[in-house]
Amino acid sequence: MAARMLVLGGTNFIGRVFVERVLEQTTLEVTLLNRGVTAPDLFKTVPHLKCDRHDFNSCSTQLAGQHWNYLVDFSGHSHAHIENIVTNCRFDHYTYISSSAVELSWPEDQLFSMAQNKLWCEHLIQSACAEVLIFRPGYVVGRHDPTGRFEFRNGRWGWLGTEEPVQPVVEVEFLTNLMLVLILRGQTGIVRGGYARPRVEQRAHPPVSTEPDWAAVSPASTL
Predict the structure, then answer these.
(1) If pLDDT is split at 50, 70 and 90, which confidence band does 208 have?
(2) Of 127, 17, 37, whose CA–CA distance to 82 is shortest?
(3) Where is this region: Disordered (predicted)?
């Protein structure tokens, strides 16, 4: 029997390229779970579970009693997003797509709020799951990018309409290939993409005041 993979998201940019790669290169039984809003006609041969991750009952209806060998999360951005998944199904290995911003942003940076949310999600997943693989990519570039922020010129990626290079940067093809290889290997830990070391070790506080504080994040090992 083929191993089962549940992809949370999977129809936008990184998730889309990843699902394409999984379907082309493996015999995994892939199922997508998302709201059915972004590109709902993609991957018609793959089962789709439609739900809002903010809604516990919706997640429970779709996931209760199910078991997955691999869970790959492209759409987790809040406490509810994580809790409503980990409390409603069983899985062996959880891969979470975070961001380099959790290590490279600072309080005045426009990405800091997002980074704190991502870091809090990392903490929740690591607390709930034994086998966890976290990716912290830099700016991801390549096909299916819906943002239109970047352009490739003179052998480098730059911000559209400027001479400023994109840093840290990682190609979506490289990232998704590495993800699949490490997932199938059962790799755990934190993997950086596009940069080697954090700018600073920052203390993470949950973005919502009702959550408890938690300890400073220690620098991750680069794989």
Answers:
(1) very low
(2) 127
(3) 201-223
Cis peptide before 168 (omega within 30 of 0): yes
Domain boundaries defined on the chain? 4-193
Question: For 150-187, what is each residue's pLDDT tens digit?
Answer: 999 989 999 999 999 999 999 999 999 999 999 999 99
Instruction: Name the DSSP letter for residue 152.
Output: E
Positive or negative, the CA dihedral 199, 183, 15, 94 is negative
* CA–CA–CA angle 95, 31, 19 (5° rounding): 65
Does domain 4-193 fall under CATH 3.90.1200.10? My reply is no
Amino acid at 70: Y
193 closest CA partner among 153, 141, 135? 135
Strand-strand pairing, 139-141 and 132-137: unpaired
Q: Please check whether residue 84 is in contact with residue 59, taking contact to mean a CB–CB distance below 8 angstroms.
A: yes
What predicted TM-score, i.e. pTM, was given to this entire model?
Answer: 0.87
CB 91 within 8 A of CB 8: no
The 3-state DSSP class for residue 53 equals coil
Q: Which two tokens stand for residue 195?
A: 């940069």
DSSP-assigned letter for residue 169: E
CA atoms of 142 and 39, how far apart (whole Å): 18
Q: How far apart are CA 206 and CA 223, in angstroms?
A: 27
Spatial separation of the C-alpha atoms in residues 35 and 172, rounded to whole Å: 23
Instruction: Report H helices in 64-205.
Output: 79-86, 101-104, 112-128, 172-185
